[in-house]
């Protein structure tokens, strides 16, 4: 990932990113020098420098009675994340208490793009860990591997490391896509019954993954009633299928 993009995903603004990278490269500089080199207006440079100082990412000092700025150790980026993580962990009991009364309320969330697909996959892993779920039901399309050639195999390994057993239905045309193993049993659906979504049923949630028309999205539905109903449909289909490819 490009450095600028990574820093912006970390939480920096575009101006903070430009100025921070400049100070990393050139060690120290005045506000005037930074403005000239980065094309950030001088008035904005002062505001941005103050923001970076408050966050602890840069340091100000004087030389010949002129204010200079320099970047703190890059390790500060990691330390800042750890501090934020510690703050959030300390208030999680209160947050959970506030949401406890709505924990069983039905919810549907739509996440778009490749990042949306990843959000859905991460939600599956997080739910499996949190709820200690040991079996899930799924249908899958090869698009997951095509769009996420590195991410998806790694995700599969993380899921298997949790010891979760998967009953998986694949289209007959995808017999080489995923095969049965100790933690996965695969059955194949006759090509007369094509399906275009990948679906995972996990606990009281269902995640739908679609790549239709090259527009990826993930729809997550949290509802015990809906999940139970889809589980029964899945198990009915499962009993009708064979473990070998059906032509």
Automatic annotation (TrEMBL):
<dbReference type="InterPro" id="IPR036388">
    <property type="entry name" value="WH-like_DNA-bd_sf"/>
</dbReference>
<dbReference type="InterPro" id="IPR036390">
    <property type="entry name" value="WH_DNA-bd_sf"/>
</dbReference>
<dbReference type="InterPro" id="IPR051797">
    <property type="entry name" value="TrmB-like"/>
</dbReference>
<feature type="domain" description="Transcription regulator TrmB N-terminal">
    <location>
        <begin position="7"/>
        <end position="69"/>
    </location>
</feature>
<dbReference type="InterPro" id="IPR002831">
    <property type="entry name" value="Tscrpt_reg_TrmB_N"/>
</dbReference>
<dbReference type="Pfam" id="PF01978">
    <property type="entry name" value="TrmB"/>
</dbReference>
<protein>
    <submittedName>
        <fullName>Transcriptional regulator, TrmB</fullName>
    </submittedName>
</protein>
């Amino acid at each position: 990932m490009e450095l600028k993009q990574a820093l912006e995903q970390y939480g920096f603004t575009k101006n903070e990113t430009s100025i921070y990278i400049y100070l990393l490269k050139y060690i120290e500089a005045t506000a005037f020098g930074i403005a000239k080199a980065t094309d950030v207006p001088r008035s904005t440079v002062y505001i941005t420098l103050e923001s970076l100082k408050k966050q602890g990412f840069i340091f100000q000092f004087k030389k010949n009675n002129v204010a200079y700025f320099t970047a703190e150790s890059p390790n500060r980026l990691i330390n800042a994340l750890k501090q934020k993580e510690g703050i959030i962990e300390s208030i999680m009991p209160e947050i959970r208490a506030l949401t406890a009364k709505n924990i069983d309320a039905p919810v549907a969330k739509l996440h778009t793009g490749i990042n949306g697909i990843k959000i859905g996959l991460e939600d599956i892993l997080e739910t499996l860990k949190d709820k200690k779920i040991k079996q899930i039901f799924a249908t899958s399309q090869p698009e997951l591997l095509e769009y996420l050639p590195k991410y998806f195999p790694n995700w599969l390994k993380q899921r298997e490391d949790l010891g979760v057993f998967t009953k998986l239905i694949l289209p007959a045309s995808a017999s080489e896509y995923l095969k049965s193993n100790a933690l996965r049993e695969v059955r194949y659906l006759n090509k007369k019954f094509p399906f275009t979504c990948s679906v995972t049923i996990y606990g009281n949630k269902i995640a739908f993954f679609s790549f239709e028309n090259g527009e990826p999205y993930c729809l997550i539905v949290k509802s015990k009633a809906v999940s139970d109903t889809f589980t029964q449909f899945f198990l009915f289909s499962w009993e009708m299928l064979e473990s070998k490819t059906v032509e």
